[in-house]
Amino acid sequence: MFEELPLAEVYRLIEPGPVVLLTTADEGRANVMAMSWHMMMEFTPPLVACLVSGSYSFAALRATGECVIAIPDVGLAPKVVAAGNCSGRTVDKFREIGLTPLPAAEVGAPLVAECFANLECRVVDDGFVKRYNLFVLEVVRAWRDPAQAAPKTIHHTGYGHFVVDGETIALPSKMP
């Protein structure tokens, strides 16, 4: 009936949300990385937990306590993958990949012009960073592009495979 699934593949079943871009800026240098390990923790204020491993972005986020979560639609998928396949230590990813950084209002990290939404964030809890590389971020300013009315997000299912948002359904709910 069932067959055993290798534990290394469990993440492919419960990937938490759309692939996003996380931007940082440290010492005048902006960087962007692809990230899919994140989750909402609270509505008000909006809190997001995210896992940022020992990368160039990790060092910048630790140093500044600020970032932007930029949410791309499926049309940006090749650029999102490119952002995840190289290091900001050696490459100016914005220039190399062809993304446009824009100044944010509250944080030093840039917005990404091509994304349909950008969330300016500050680290509010780093108590899990040492053990799990898990940051808790508070969204302090949020932006959306009204020209991108019905964006479709991409969801990583492992090893270069993605699912694209599909049909939307509405069911009765008592949640606000």
UniProtKB/TrEMBL annotation:
Name of the protein: Flavin reductase domain protein FMN-binding protein
Residues forming the Flavin reductase like domain are 12-161
**One matching Pfam family:** Flavin_Reduct
The record's annotation in InterPro entries points to: Flavin_Rdtase-like_dom (IPR002563), Flavoredoxin (IPR052174), Split_barrel_FMN-bd (IPR012349)
Q: Which family does it belong to?
A: Belongs to the flavoredoxin family.
Keywords, comma-separated and alphabetical: Flavoprotein
Q: Which GO terms describe its molecular function?
A: FMN binding; oxidoreductase activity, acting on the CH-NH group of donors, NAD or NADP as acceptor
Cofactors, names only: FMN
> Does the record's keyword annotation contain Flavoprotein?
yes
Origin species: Polymorphum gilvum (strain LMG 25793 / CGMCC 1.9160 / SL003B-26A1)
